[in-house]
Amino acid sequence: MQLLDCTLRDGAYIVDAKFGTSAIKGIIDKLQKANVDIIECGWLKNSDHKIGTTFFHVPEDISMYVNKKSETAVFVAMIDWDRYDLSYLPQKENSILDAIRVVFPRGKAKEGIEVGRKILEKGYKVYFQAANTLAYSDDELVELAKCVNGIDAEALSIVDTFGAMYEEDLDRIIEKLDEHLDSRIKLGFHSHNNQQLSFALTQYFVNRLQYSERDVIVDASLCGMGRGAGNTTTELAASFLNRKYNCNYEMDQILDAIDLYMEYFKANYSWGYSTPYFISGMYCCHVNNIAYLLKNHRTNARDMNEIIKSLDPQDRLKYDYDLLEEKYIENQNRVIDDKASIETLESAFKDRIVLLIAPGKSTLTEIYKIKEYIKAKNPVVIEVNAINPEYDADYLFLISSSRYDYSKSIYPELFDKQKKILLSNIGADSKENDIVVNFNRVVKRGWDYFDNAVINCLRLLNIVHVKNVAIAGFDEFKAHYNETYADASLPTVNPEGDWEKLNAEILDMFMDFKRTAGDSMNIEFITESAYDV
Predict the structure, then answer these.
(1) Which of 136, 186, 398, 411 has the largest count of CB atoms under 10 Å?
(2) Number of neighbours of residue 376 by Cβ within 10 angstroms
(3) How many CA within 13 A on the CB side of residue 143?
(4) What CATH number should be reported for the domain whose range is 2-268?
(5) What residues does 436 pair with on adjacent strands?
(6) What angle do CA 185, 188, 189 make, to 5 degrees?
(7) Is 168 helix (H, G, I), strand (E, B) or coil?
(8) CB 70, CB 32: distance < 8 Å
């Protein structure tokens, strides 16, 4: 049994390879002292090495991060089969690396193996990574094994690229490769945790091959650091191999590596299992599609599921952002004829003050002030994207399916009682009294957090010519999860916790709206707000 740590290579996706000199040195040192068999130091790239990163140009770039190379640890770096010019790679006798890992996609096995042949000629060992092994048919697996047998490869790894495997999938692949791959060639497994199965499948892989003649390799990373849902964790894999297979990994050294070098990355970056990456695993979908929808549209889980499901299976394997944007817009638009809705609102709000009750906690702390305003001014009261049972509102304005479902589930009587103004992207089965407005009427892009409900509602009120608007509960977001809300259980709008950016964008959108509306709307704040500038 051999353990391969890929923190500095797979984790490069999370930090753009910018681990910093101290972390790179420290992680390599601690992994060596922990007796980890194979240390993947990073990637080899055609571009020059930038100090403090794990994108290396030539093996010599790695030397500055190694105080002393142990006699037992194997140092490897990865290359994409078609993205590294092997003329940069020196002969093995002039290199700190012992082996090169070559990753290739399905359909390019023969080309990838030919790259490996050239690397062997330079004296290195070669490890092959068959990306998206789950997609290989039985015949393709047999052919893959035969091709690898044709050269003096050190190892071939099964790769669960999309974190989509179940036990029976891994079993099928192991059976074919173990039968047809020369026993001298090690069989490896690189997992992803999209379905919370990474460690379980790693254990299954090892147990399944414990009586095989061949050596096996399992990939893992400290704290599971890796693209998207991440990988099996080195600490769990090492402990398992120690307890079940009498391996000799020094757990104190691994834990020191986490304490000393990983806490910063855990505090400042995100990886690991999440619902969006579960969707990626469920549909065998490239994680870049998930990342795009999260970054550019903060797409909720239900819409993400519908968007990814709408892609052809082959399109899910790649990342065509133009196609993805087209599918996103198609999902959000749900274009309707909302002329009657606009006329209804215009008539209902004519010559009236409209009070927006936003979800902020100040709607509780300043409840008497708000109720006094309602008593004195008799405004049309609209609750924005959340029901607040302390108020008797005339309308509920909703812009997201998650808030729609939450309101319906938690406050069923109030939900049924209130008239609802819905954006067409929600896709709910609107009832006779619901007023549905086209999503694109009130959305203005140009910000990451473009779908702020208060701003969207203001745009709608401007469209229906409301002159006077009062706002309560439009509170600045605070540092802790849902600290700002009157109802702390509301589905969050900002799972990444980038509150500073969120506040800045909301302020910028509000100022943009005021410039656009000009003198056509007077806005009054009933409760204190950081956006009242």
Answers:
(1) 398
(2) 8
(3) 11
(4) 3.20.20.70
(5) 422
(6) 160
(7) helix
(8) yes
Please check the confidence at residue 269 and state whether its pLDDT lies above 60. Answer: yes
Residue 178: how many CA atoms within 13 Å on its side-chain side? 19
Residues 6+ apart with CB under 8 A from 480: none
Helix (H, G, I), strand (E, B) or coil at 379: coil
Name the nearest CA neighbour of 292 among 253, 259, 318.
Answer: 318
CB–CB of 16/47 below 8 Å? no
d(CA 107, CA 109): 6
pLDDT at 113: 96
Q: How far apart, in whole angstroms, are the C-alpha atoms of residue 131 and residue 159?
A: 5
Q: How far is CA 510 from CA 126, 179, 447, 460, in A?
A: 57, 65, 12, 14
CA distances from 285 to 197, 292, 454 (A): 16, 12, 34
C-alpha–C-alpha distance, residues 43 and 8, integer Å? 9
**Chain centroid to CA 14: how far?**
10
Second CATH level (architecture) for the domain 339-525: 3-Layer(aba) Sandwich (3.40)
Residue 147, both tokens: 């091709």
Helix (H) or strand (E) holding 522: strand 522-525
pLDDT at 318 over 80: yes
Q: List pLDDT tens digits, range 414-450.
A: 999 889 999 988 865 556 678 999 888 898 888 878 8
Provide the pairing of β-strand 419-423 with 468-472.
unpaired
Nearest to 356 by CA among 499, 468, 220, 236: 468
- The CA-CA-CA angle for residues 311, 317, 318, to 5°, reads 90
Residue 517: φ, ψ to 5°? -70, -30
* H or E element in which residue 470 lies: strand 468-472
Cβ partners under 8 Å of residue 430, min gap 6 = 420, 422, 436
pLDDT at 492 over 90: no
CB 78 within 8 A of CB 9: yes
Return mean pLDDT, the chain: 93
Q: Are 163 and 197 in contact (CB under 8 A)?
A: yes
- Per-residue pLDDT of 45-60, as tens digits, reads 999 999 999 999 999 9
Q: Can you tell me the distance from the alpha carbon of 497 to that of 478, in angstroms, rounded to the nearest whole number?
A: 9
Mean pLDDT score, 296-305? 80
- Would you list the domain boundaries of the chain? 2-268, 275-333, 339-525
Residue reference for tokens 């140092």: 75
Structural contact between residues 252 and 25, judged by C-beta atoms closer than 8 angstroms? no
Closest CA to 433 of 396, 405, 403, 399: 396
φ, ψ for residue 112, nearest 5 deg: -65, -40
Predicted local distance difference test score (pLDDT) of residue 333: 65
pLDDT at residue 246, rounded to an integer: 96
Angle at 194 (CA atoms; ends 193, 198), nearest 5 degrees: 25
